[in-house]
């Protein structure tokens, strides 16, 4: 098992202890990058993809920890660069299917799944070497905190939306899989401290159990985990360490 740490939230370098995992490879990019935010994000994305590709090519399943969901596209790009064409299972409390035309906040993380499936290709996929995944080969798991524009899109999109309880070999796409888990899919009441908390979600154990069912297919080629939280307060650091360890342990179960 190879653990890759991408210690960034978009193009912002996170504190060394923000994501409590011992990594085999840590992605670093030069500070003070030039260009707009898309271009600066692309520097991080290309470096992450370059770290993933040789691991997949060697026959291993990398686990990639980062501070936001945009890195998931880089994980997919790295898998593709290794010669594998994956589908995507996307655990997230949010839809992540905005476009620049629909987002009200302008937060780029809210576009993460949509750009992986081809939106704004010139701003994202083309810059990190990603071949967009067909929308019908993506499944959104437990996206419950949706803006109206996201709900409208998902109502007609071939991207399916299912609850955590329905994740099973027969409900995920065929072929190789990139499993992406934004940890804020966990109910905010159980696990506080996320940048964008969402109540009414599954427990951590329910999420871990669903991930085990995906891994049991034997088709996961990369595991991507986003940790979009604020700096830890009080006992949060220990809770985060335990959750990150549990996620990482899925690859050795």
TrEMBL record:
Pfam (any one): Arginase
Signal peptide, first to last residue: none
Keywords: Hydrolase, Manganese, Metal-binding
Gene Ontology terms for molecular function: arginase activity; manganese ion binding
InterPro entries in the record: Ureohydrolase, Ureohydrolase_dom_sf
An example Gene Ontology CC term for this record: cytoplasm
Gene3D superfamilies per record: Ureohydrolase domain
Family named by the database record: Belongs to the arginase family.
PANTHER family: ARGINASE
Descriptive protein name: Putative arginase family protein
Lineage of producing organism: Bacteria, Bacillati, Actinomycetota, Actinomycetes, Micromonosporales
